[in-house]
Write a structure and sequence with these properties.
There is one protein chain. This protein is of the alpha/beta class. The protein has twelve helices and 16 strands. It folds into two domains: about 90 residues, Urease, subunit C, domain 1 (Roll); about 300 residues, Alpha-Beta Barrel (TIM Barrel), CATH 3.20.20.140. Strands 1, 2, 3, 4, 5, 14, 15 and 16 form an eight-stranded mixed β-sheet that branches. Strand 6, helix 1 and strand 7 form a beta-alpha-beta unit. The longest helix is centred in the middle third of the chain and has 18 residues. The protein is globular, with a radius of gyration of 21 Å. The two termini are about 25 Å apart.
């Protein structure tokens, strides 16, 4: 059946205008995007009045941890976390490999693909994890399955998938034809800093020590090494969760279609700084750590200049009990996929970032970097992955109680937003709807 969204404020990568979208729910494809009203409406067309709400391409989040290795998880699984995704207007996600079991074999990848097909409410793609000795299996996975790319941990994080063999890393950059997504933190420096703070405070170092242990220097050293390797080998590299001003020196502005080396940041690096540890504690503990307010401001400016290419959430639904303790005890990571779009629309409004640029940062650029040519824009012939967002007459206060994720909490509890996702379609099928 044909669906017509009319009276909408359409947001494309080029402009914002009053118009309509026609899509086919049977094929899951967009038929027409136009200004004003359509010349004619088919008798059997289902008409949806947007009442002036924004309609934009569904968000593509290339960095989530759904925690589901195919057997479910007490923290979250592909059903619960994809429900949180569509509640936030996210229609495609790339799940990271540090699950149980880790996605480092073809057998584990197949299991996750099957689980996603059974439970996923959005489109779930997978990164294949790199180890010190699984390059042949990675190449097989890239050849036979639609993986998002290879995930390389050049610093230890949740799941302990650190790759510390330089010859393996160099061979990966030389041989792998897809995108290498890199978690860049210098493990030697982190270990040295950890020992220093453990000697000083024992196991009770406060969470405010976290950005000093996992320091800006640790991020820069590792990121510089990865970028140098990518430049030397010509590999396609995407730096995950960029968190510091200094790392920005390694990247340049421009269209992603002209880049082999790209980067992303996350909403929590744009909205929080180290000043917020006192207020929020380990709720905002993540790897890499949230740094200074100067770093936060530099990241926002880099978004404006096109130096940072993607906003991704690094969604990690740890239970709130896992967030007990300080820098050395609490788990790192936080949920974010449900509220990222409204929060980023508010930030864009405050910071003078256009909605056309925001839709590129949260959808179109990721589609281009990772080769998803069938989505990421509002254009005839592409997938009808759509999100409708209403600008609220009064600010809404985010609360833990409205969290859809299985973990049941959000670091954004208590924050005001002026935008709300009211409907999400994935390949033409409505997956989320709520009132204003």
């Amino acid at each position: 059946m044909l669906k017509l969204i009319t009276n909408a404020t359409i947001v494309t990568a080029e402009k914002v205008f009053g118009g309509f979208i026609i899509f086919d729910a049977a094929t899951g494809l967009i038929k027409e995007v136009g200004e004003g009203t359509p010349d004619e409406i088919a008798a059997d067309c289902d008409v949806i009045d947007a009442a002036g709400a924004y309609v934009m391409a569904g968000v593509i989040d290339p960095h989530v941890h759904f925690r589901d290795g195919g057997d479910g998880s007490p923290k979250g699984d592909m059903l619960t976390e994809s429900r949180a995704a569509v509640a936030g207007g996210v229609t495609t996600v790339f799940d990271m490999p540090n699950t149980t079991p880790p996605t480092i074999t073809v057998a584990a990848l197949r299991k996750k693909i099957e689980a996603a097909g059974e439970k996923g409410l959005c489109d779930i793609r997978f990164f294949f994890g790199v180890t010190n000795n699984n390059l042949p299996e990675l190449m097989e996975a890239y050849r036979d399955y639609p993986i998002a790319g290879a995930k390389l941990f050049m610093g230890s994080s949740t799941g302990n998938m650190l790759v510390d063999d330089d010859s393996t890393i160099r061979e990966l950059f030389r041989r792998f034809p897809g995108v290498i997504a890199v978690h860049a933190e210098d493990q030697e420096l982190i270990s040295r800093n950890t020992a220093e703070y453990r000697a000083r405070y024992g196991e009770d170092a406060g969470v405010e020590c976290h950005p000093l242990i996992r320091s800006a220097e640790a991020c820069y050293r590792s990121a510089a090494k990865a970028v140098e390797l990518a430049q030397e080998t010509g590999a396609g590299m995407h730096l995950c969760h960029l968190s510091t001003a200094r790392e920005l020196e390694l990247f340049h502005s421009g269209s992603v279609s002209e880049k082999r080396i790209t980067c992303e940041t996350a909403p929590h690096y744009l909205l929080f700084s180290d000043k917020d540890y006192q207020r929020l504690g380990a709720r905002i503990k993540c790897n890499p750590a949230i740094k200074s307010d100067a770093d936060r401001r530099a990241l926002i400016e880099a978004l404006k200049q096109g130096v940072i290419d993607v906003i991704a959430t690094d969604h990690a639904p740890h239970l709130i009990a896992d967030k007990e303790g300080g820098a050395l005890k609490a788990m790192s990571g936080m949920p974010g996929v449900q509220f990222s779009l409204p929060l980023m629309m508010d930030m864009a409004e405050r910071e003078g970032i256009s909605l056309t640029q925001l839709t590129r940062l949260m959808s179109g650029n990721a589609a281009r970097i990772f080769g998803l040519s069938d989505r990421g824009e509002l254009r005839a012939g592409l997938r009808a992955d759509l999100v409708m967002v209403q600008r609220l007459p009064e600010p809404h206060i985010i609360s833990d109680a409205e969290t859809v994720s299985k973990c049941g909490w959000t670091p954004y509890d208590g924050m005001e937003v002026c935008h709300k996702v009211t409907a999400t379609w994935v390949a033409g099928e409505k997956k989320w709807e709520t009132g204003v």
